[in-house]
C-alpha cells in the first residue's frame, strides 16, 4: 500500500496548494463564491454534526483530496483492521477495539466470545456493587473505586467517568491515580475509608512501573489501616492481559479480568479497562457507550469517502498541514464535562501518529503526526486564544459544542457558552481588518495619529481554519461516537501516511534509562552516565544530603 507521499495525486495536490497560496485564497473568498458553502461542507454521522466549511479548500483541492483514500488503499486497510488482520506489523497484532463494540472480525472468530465473557464479568461486578454484595475485608459494601493505571489504562476511563458524571450511580465514587509521584496516591487516599475502598489495578502488561508502584503503596496503606494482612487481597481487582503477573502480585484469580493482546492500550476504554466507567454509570449505560461507538464504526466502514466523517477529518488535517504548514492542532471542547478530552486525544493521536518510518521501516517522505493540545472553552479564551488569533503560526481548531446543557435548568447560561464557542470560530475566520479597526477607533474619538499607532496591534488577520463538531447532548452514546470518531480519524491518517498507528516503540527508551538513573540517584554511581545526567545527579544528591543534614 502506498502512502499519500508516494501517490500520483500528491504532486498535483502540492501544485494546487502552491497555486492557491500565490493567489492568496481566503476563506472569505470561498464563502463569497459559494453562498451555500456552510451548508454543503457539513455532514452528520452517528448523531454528530460536523461543519468543515472553514478550510482553504476550493472544489479542485477537495476533488484531489478525495482521491487520496483510494490511491492509498484506505477502504481495504480499514476492512482489514476491522476483520482482525495483524495491522500492527511491528508487534504482529491485530487492533480489534471495534470487536469490543460488537463488530465480528472475519479472521478472528474466537474474539466475540472473549468479548461476551469480558462483558459478563464486568456486569456481575457492577451488579454486586449495585446491590451492596461487593465487599472487601469486612462486610461493608464497596463505595469507592480507585483506578490505578496510566496512559491508556487511565485516560479513557478518567475522561468517560468525568464526562458522564451526571449519570453516576449515587452509591459510588471513582478516583484515578496514575502518576508515580507518591503525592498522587497520597492525596487520593487522604479522605478514603479503607473498609469501603476497592482498588482496580489496570495494566495490560502488568509491568508498568508507575502502576505497580502505586498498587504496592495502596497495599501498604491498607496494612497501615490495620486491614488483616490475609484479607488485603479482597480490596483488589486486576484488569490485565498478563493474568499470571497479577496473581503473583497477590490478586485472586477470580478477581482478575482478562484483556487481550488484540486490544491496544490507547484503544482500550471499551474493554474491561472501562470497568470504573461501568461501575460508575451502570452496565446498561456502559453498553450505550459501546453502542454509540458501534454506530460510528458502521459509518466509518460503510460510508463513501466524501461523506465519511473520520476520513474527512483526516483529509482536512492533511490539507491544513500542506496548505498552511501547520504542525499543531487544537481541540477546544466547550463543555466542562469534556475537560479531559485534549489529554485523552494527546495519547490517542500523538502516541499513534508520532512516527518517522513507514510500515516497512523506510523513512517517511513527509510530515506525520502533529501536536494536539487544548483545554475547555471558555478558559482557554483567557490564556492561549491570543496565540490562535494573532500568533504567527495558524493552528487549525476543532471546536466541540454540546447543544443541551449538561447541568439541569441552566439553559440560558448554556446559551452564552455556546455563543462563545461560535464567536471564536467566527473571529478566527473573519478577524478584524486594519480599515475596520481604524474606523472603530476614529468613531470612538481617537485622533488619527493615535489610531494609526494602535491599528497594527488591534488588527486580527483572521482567515484561520476550524471545524465545528456538535453533539445534541452529552450522554453515553454520543460520547462513544465522539471518541470512535477520533480513533478512526487517527487510523485513517496512519494508513494515508503509511505508518503503523498501533505501536509505540518510542516510549521504551526512557523507561530503560530510568533504571541506571534511579541507581545513580540512590548510590551516586554516575560513571556510566552522560555528562549532563552526571551533573544533574550530583546536584540532586547534594541537595538531598543538605536536606538530610538540616533535618538531622
Ligand atoms: O508507555 C506507554 C504505554 O505502553 C501506553 O501505550 C499504555 O497505554 C500505557 O503505557 C500503560 O500500559 P499498561 O496498561 O500495560 O500498564
Helix and strand arrangement:
Blueprint: H1 9-23, H2 27-33, H3 37-40, E1 42-45, E2 48-54, H4 59-65, H5 68-71, H6 74-83, H7 111-131, E3 144-148, H8 155-163, E4 173-177, H9 182-189, E5 197-202, H10 209-224, E6 236-240, H11 243-249, E7 256-258, H12 275-281, H13 283-302, H14 309-324, E8 328-334, H15 341-353, E9 371-373, H16 385-390, E10 397-402, H17 411-430, H18 434-443, H19 448-458, E11 466-471, H20 476-497, H21 508-523, H22 531-551
Parallel strand pairs: 3-4, 3-5, 5-6, 6-7, 8-9, 8-10, 10-11
Antiparallel strand pairs: 1-2, 2-11
User: pLDDT below 50 for ≥5 consecutive residues: which ranges?
Assistant: none
How many H/I helices?
Answer: 22
**Cofactors and ligands:** 6-O-phosphono-beta-D-fructofuranose
Helix content: 40-55%
Total strand segments: 11
Which strand order does the major sheet show?
Answer: 1-2-11-10-8-9
Average pLDDT works out at: 96
Helix-strand makeup class? alpha/beta
| Main beta sheet | 6 strands, mixed
Which word captures the global form? Answer: globular
Q: What proportion of the residues form beta strands (DSSP E)?
A: 5-15%
Amino acid at each position: 500500500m502506498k502512502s499519500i507521499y508516494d501517490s500520483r495525486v500528491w504532486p498535483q495536490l502540492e501544485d494546487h496548494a502552491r497555486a492557491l497560496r500565490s493567489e492568496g485564497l481566503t476563506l472569505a473568498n470561498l464563502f463569497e463564491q459559494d453562498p451555500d458553502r456552510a451548508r454543503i461542507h457539513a455532514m452528520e454521522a452517528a448523531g454528530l454534526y460536523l461543519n468543515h466549511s472553514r478550510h482553504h479548500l476550493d472544489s479542485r483541492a477537495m476533488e484531489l483530496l478525495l482521491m487520496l483514500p483510494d490511491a492509498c488503499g484506505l477502504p481495504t486497510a480499514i476492512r482489514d483492521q476491522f476483520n482482525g488482520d495483524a495491522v500492527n506489523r511491528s508487534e504482529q497484532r491485530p487492533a480489534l477495539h471495534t470487536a469490543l463494540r460488537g463488530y465480528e472480525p472475519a479472521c478472528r472468530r474466537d474474539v466475540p466470545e472473549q468479548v461476551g465473557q469480558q462483558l459478563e464479568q464486568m456486569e456481575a461486578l457492577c451488579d454486586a456493587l449495585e446491590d451492596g454484595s461487593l465487599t472487601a475485608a469486612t462486610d461493608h459494601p464497596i463505595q469507592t473505586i480507585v483506578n490505578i493505571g496510566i496512559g491508556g489504562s487511565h485516560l479513557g476511563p478518567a475522561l468517560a467517568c468525568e464526562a458522564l458524571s451526571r449519570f453516576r450511580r449515587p452509591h459510588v465514587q471513582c478516583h484515578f491515580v496514575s502518576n508515580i509521584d507518591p503525592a498522587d496516591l497520597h492525596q487520593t487516599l487522604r479522605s478514603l475509608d479503607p473498609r469501603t475502598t476497592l482498588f482496580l489495578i489496570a495494566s495490560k502488561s502488568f509491568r508498568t512501573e508507575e502502576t505497580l508502584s502505586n498498587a504496592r503503596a495502596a497495599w501498604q496503606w491498607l496494612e497501615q489501616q490495620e486491614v488483616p494482612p490475609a484479607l488485603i487481597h479482597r480490596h483488589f481487582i486486576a484488569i490485565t492481559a498478563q493474568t499470571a503477573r497479577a496473581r503473583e502480585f497477590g490478586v485472586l484469580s477470580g478477581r482478575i479480568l482478562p484483556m487481550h493482546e488484540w486490544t491496544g492500550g490507547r484503544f482500550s476504554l471499551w474493554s474491561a479497562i472501562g470497568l470504573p466507567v461501568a461501575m460508575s454509570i451502570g452496565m446498561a449505560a456502559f453498553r450505550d457507550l459501546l453502542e454509540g461507538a458501534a454506530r460510528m464504526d458502521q459509518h466509518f466502514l460503510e460510508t463513501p469517502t466524501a461523506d465519511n466523517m473520520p476520513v474527512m477529518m483526516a483529509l482536512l488535517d492533511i490539507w491544513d498541514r500542506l496548505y498552511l504548514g501547520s504542525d499543531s492542532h487544537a481541540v477546544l471542547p466547550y463543555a466542562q464535562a469534556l475537560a479531559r478530552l485534549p489529554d485523552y486525544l494527546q495519547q490517542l493521536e500523538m502516541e499513534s501518529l508520532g512516527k518517522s518510518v513507514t510500515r516497512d521501516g523506510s523513512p517517511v517522505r513527509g510530515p506525520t503526526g502533529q501536536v494536539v493540545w487544548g483545554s475547555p472553552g471558555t478558559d482557554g479564551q483567557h490564556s492561549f486564544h491570543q496565540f490562535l488569533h494573532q500568533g504567527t503560526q495558524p493552528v487549525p481548531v476543532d471546536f466541540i459544542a454540546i447543544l443541551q446543557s449538561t447541568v439541569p435548568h441552566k439553559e440560558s447560561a448554556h446559551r452564552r457558552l455556546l455563543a462563545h464557542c461560535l464567536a471564536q470560530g467566527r473571529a478566527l475566520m473573519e478577524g478584524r481588518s486594519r480599515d475596520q479597526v481604524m474606523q472603530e477607533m476614529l468613531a470612538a474619538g481617537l485622533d488619527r495619529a493615535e489610531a494609526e499607532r494602535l491599528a497594527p496591534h488591534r488588527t486580527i488577520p483572521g482567515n484561520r481554519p476550524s471545524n465545528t463538531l456538535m453533539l445534541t447532548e452529552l450522554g453515553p452514546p454520543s460520547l462513544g461516537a465522539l471518541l470512535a470518531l477520533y480513533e478512526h480519524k487517527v487510523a485513517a491518517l496512519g494508513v494515508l501516511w503509511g505508518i503503523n498507528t498501533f505501536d509505540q516503540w518510542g516510549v521504551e527508551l526512557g523507561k530503560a534509562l530510568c533504571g541506571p538513573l534511579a541507581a545513580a540517584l540512590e548510590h551516586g554511581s554516575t560513571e556510566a552516565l552522560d555528562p549532563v545526567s552526571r551533573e544533574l545527579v550530583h546536584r540532586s544528591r547534594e541537595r538531598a544530603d543538605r536536606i538530610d543534614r538540616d533535618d538531622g
